Amino acid sequence: MRLPGKVVFITDADLSSGKAVLLRLAAEGASFILNSASAGRELGPELELARQTGANVLVVTADLSRSDEAARVLETAAERLGTVDVLVHNNNLVKPIRVEDGDEALFLEMMNANAKTAYVCAKAAGEQMKAKRAGKIIFVSSIHAEKPTGSSFAYSASKGAVKMLAREAAVVLGRHGVSVNTIEFGPAEGDDAVFSSDVSGLYEHYRYKVPGAVLGTHKDLAELVLFLASDEARCINGADIRMDGGFLMHYLDFKMNMPLPAGGAL
């Protein structure tokens, strides 16, 4: 096992990414603090499978954009499980919003959900990690920290903020033995609907803009999270790891890897 006795805090366990990380890391001996807006109702099968591995699991429901709630969660968890060893921040709120006429309240909602929670959780978990001079902080972010969506500027802005937060935290917390890294994930199944746009063709035939025409899955993501959470990644700090199959290399004007029509060419 690669994470025996480690306490892992997943900030949105209800998402597909959270479920995949829970199952993969449970198989490696971890225990969990799971923040779940559904109070665990969306996690029935995954919770059962995780507990079958022997994992200790604490399910909480907290607004992690509030420092007092994040602190309360980690204090409660410290009494029941121990202090946190690995923070996996995977919050990922996406809503359409345009620069021209976007609502300020919606902008703030997305910044709070995706970026402020990243800061609040890194601060709270970082305090516990500093005390034992060890820890891993992993931000599950998006390729849209690099590339505009054409549909939700606030999402891109929030993920760009997380990118720089991670770099700053890697320098400061790195002095105390804490590694901070970012995974820029995407594209995945369904992203053409999530990022539907009337100004960008980025997600048109997007599967074939991945050189191998294979989209990443949350199971793939969980494997990378496991690596970054393990001692094998002890020398990786401040890294932005793009996990997109080469999708963003479609900046270049290559023909897409679409199946050819019978007897014809693209």
Short description:
The chain has helices spanning 16-26, 44-52, 67-80, 104-132, 153-174, 191-194, 218-229; strands spanning 7-10, 31-35, 57-60, 86-89, 135-142, 178-185, 240-243.
Strand content: 5-15%
List the secondary-structure elements in sequence, H or E.
EHEHEHEHEHEHHE
- What coarse outline follows from CA principal-axis ratios? globular
Strand order of the largest sheet: 3-2-1-4-5-6-7
- Largest sheet, strands/sense/barrel: 7 strands, parallel
Radius of gyration: 19 Å
What structural category do the secondary elements indicate? alpha/beta
Note the total helix count: 7
Give a topology summary.
Blueprint: E1 7-10, H1 16-26, E2 31-35, H2 44-52, E3 57-60, H3 67-80, E4 86-89, H4 104-132, E5 135-142, H5 153-174, E6 178-185, H6 191-194, H7 218-229, E7 240-243
Parallel strand pairs: 1-2, 1-4, 2-3, 4-5, 5-6, 6-7
Helix pairs in contact: 1-2, 1-7, 3-4, 4-5
